[in-house]
Amino acid sequence: MFLGQFYxxxxxxxxxxxxxxxxxxxxxxxxYVMQGFERNLVVLPSERYIELSQRVNQMSxxxxxxxxxxxxxxxxxxxxxxxxxxxxxxxxxLREFAGLVSGTVIVGMGSYFEIWTPDSWNVQxxxxxxxxxxxxxxxxxxxxxx
Length: 146
Prior knowledge:
Helix content: 25-40%
Strand order of the largest sheet: 1-7-8-4-3-5
Number of strands: 8
Order of helices and strands: EEHEEHHEEHEEHH
Number of domains: 1
CATH topology: Chemotaxis protein chec
Number of helices: 6
Strand content: 15-25%
Largest sheet: 6 strands, antiparallel
CATH superfamily: Transcriptional regulator MraZ domain
Distance between the termini: 22 Å
Shape: globular
Structural class: alpha+beta
Radius of gyration: 16 Å
CATH architecture: 3-Layer(aba) Sandwich
């Protein structure tokens, strides 16, 4: 499970060190990196990306929203594997999309993780710090434990 926040730099060749805690979930089968929904990148272990791609492939080609989602999921995805030092290579076009130059914040999202610029993550984090807004946003969800 991908948890927590980590600050890492991208080197001159576009390689990013994956946090040690995350590596065991990526080593066996690699992962896919793709464009996220908010000027960020999403890294999914291979099995999660395959699940996502199967769900997207079941959507109708005649639905314009489904076609846009297909374009997002398939045209921006790249398979990545950890090198011997635990780094992945982020393609140039994805780094440009997310505005990643050197510093990054790697954010655990449970079954996947996201890569943000520090400035973009700070904006997201500010939203998370607003307690009243969180109560309003999440009040509709059943978060009780049984």
